[in-house]
Design a protein that fits this description.
Blueprint: E1 5-9, H1 13-22, E2 29-33, H2 36-46, E3 50-54, H3 62-71, E4 80-85, H4 90-97, E5 102-106, H5 110-134, H6 145-162, E6 165-173, H7 176-183, H8 185-202, E7 208-213, E8 216-221, H9 226-241, E9 245-247, E10 250-252, E11 256-264, H10 272-285, E12 291-293, H11 296-303
Parallel strand pairs: 1-2, 1-3, 3-4, 4-5, 11-12
Antiparallel strand pairs: 6-8, 6-11, 7-8, 9-10
Helix pairs in contact: 2-3, 7-8, 8-9
Bound molecules: magnesium ion.
Magnesium ion binds next to loops.
C-alpha cells in the first residue's frame, strides 16, 4: 500500500500541531498550509489522499477553497473534511453540499477525528478503484479509449518536460466484418479477446495498450525510438498471425494492419494518433497484414 498523505489548510498554527499529534499513525505524512492559496497550490502539487480544510479563515474561507479544489480535475476527487468551530455547525450543510465529504468540530475529539479521516481515506480508495475500472475495456481487459487519451496527454507532457520520444501504433483487424458475417459476433468477440491478450502479453510494463474502439487497438510505446517501435510492432504482427480461433466450422486465423507514428524529437506530439491512423490507412491500401511507418513521404502519398 502506498504512503497515505493528508493536507491541512488552517490559519491557526496551533491546529497544525494538534493535527500532527492526533493523526500520527493514521496517515504517513501531513502537508501544512496556513493560507488558502498555498493550500490549493499544495493540493495540486502533492495530490494528498485527504484534505482537512478550516472553514473560518481570513481572505478566503474554506468554502471558496473547496469550490476551487472541486473545479480542478487533479483535486476534484480528493475527500475534504471541513474543520469548524462547534458553535458554527450551521456551516456544515453548506460545506457538504459543495462536495465536502465530512466535517469535524473544534476542539477535536481525537478518536472521532481519526475515525473520520480513516473513513475519508476509505472513500478515496473506492474512488480510485472505480477510476481504475472505468479505464478498462470490458471485452479485452486492455485499457479503454479514455485511458488512451490520458496516456497520450501524459506522454506529450513528459516529452515536453524531459525530451526523448515515444511511439504510437494503431492496429486494426483485417476484414473483421467478414469474420463476423462468417462466424457470428460471438466468435468475432473471441477474436478481439485473443487479440487483446496477445497485444497485452507483448507490451512492456511501461507501454499502454488500449482498445480504441470496435476492432481497432492502440499502443503508446514509452521512451522508444523508431527501430525499437518497429521491432515491437513486427513481433506483434507475427504473434497475431499465429493465433488460431476455434469456431464450430473449424479453426481459423486472421491478420491485422498497423500504422506507426513517432512523437518527440523532430516529430510533433499533438497529432501522433492521427498520423498513426494515416499510416494504418496506408497499410490497408497496400494490401493489409503489414506495418506502415508514418513519414513525410507516406503523408505525401496519402494526399496525392
Ligand atoms: Mg480558522
Amino acid at each position: 500500500m502506498s504512503r497515505l498523505t493528508a493536507l491541512l489548510i488552517d490559519d491557526d498554527p496551533n491546529v497544525h500541531d494538534l493535527i500532527d499529534f492526533h493523526l500520527e499513525g493514521v496517515v504517513d505524512r501531513i502537508f501544512h498550509a496556513e493560507h488558502p492559496a498555498s493550500g490549493i497550490a499544495l493540493a495540486t502539487h502533492e495530490m494528498p489522499d485527504v484534505i482537512l480544510l478550516d472553514i473560518e479563515m481570513p481572505y478566503m474561507d474554506g468554502f471558496q477553497v473547496c469550490r476551487e479544489l472541486k473545479q480542478l480535475a487533479l483535486t476534484r476527487d480528493i475527500p475534504i473534511i471541513f474543520l469548524t468551530a462547534d458553535n458554527a455547525t450551521h456551516h456544515v450543510a453548506r460545506g457538504l453540499d459543495m462536495g465536502g465529504t465530512d466535517y469535524v468540530t473544534k476542539p477535536f475529539v481525537a478518536v472521532e477525528l481519526q475515525a473520520r479521516v480513516r473513513a475519508a481515506l476509505r472513500t478515496r480508495r473506492l474512488i480510485e478503484l472505480l477510476r481504475v475500472h472505468a479505464r478498462v475495456d470490458a471485452l479485452t481487459g486492455l485499457k479503454n479509449r479514455g485511458a488512451l487519451e490520458e496516456a497520450l496527454e501524459r506522454s506529450a507532457a513528459e516529452v515536453a518536460r524531459r525530451g526523448g520520444g515515444y511511439a504510437v501504433a494503431l492496429l486494426d483487424v483485417d476484414h473483421f466484418k467478414v469474420v463476423n458475417d462468417t462466424y457470428g459476433h460471438g466468435i468475432g468477440d473471441e477474436v478481439l479477446r485473443q487479440l487483446g491478450a496477445t497485444i497485452g502479453g507483448l507490451c512492456r510494463p511501461t507501454d499502454l495498450a488500449a482498445r480504441y474502439g470496435g476492432e481497432e487497438f492502440a499502443l503508446v510505446l514509452a521512451d522508444t525510438n523508431q527501430a525499437t517501435a518497429i521491432t515491437i510492432c513486427e513481433r506483434l504482427l507475427n504473434a497475431i498471425r499465429k493465433i488460431r480461433v476455434s469456431a464450430p466450422a473449424g479453426e481459423f486465423g486472421f491478420t491485422i494492419s498497423a500504422g506507426l507514428a513517432m512523437a518527440g524529437g523532430n516529430c510533433p506530439t499533438d497529432d501522433a494518433l492521427q498520423r498513426a491512423d494515416e499510416a494504418l490507412y496506408h497499410a490497408k491500401g497496400l494490401g493489409r497484414d503489414r506495418l506502415v511507418i508514418w513519414t513525410m513521404a507516406s503523408a505525401d502519398d496519402l494526399v496525392s
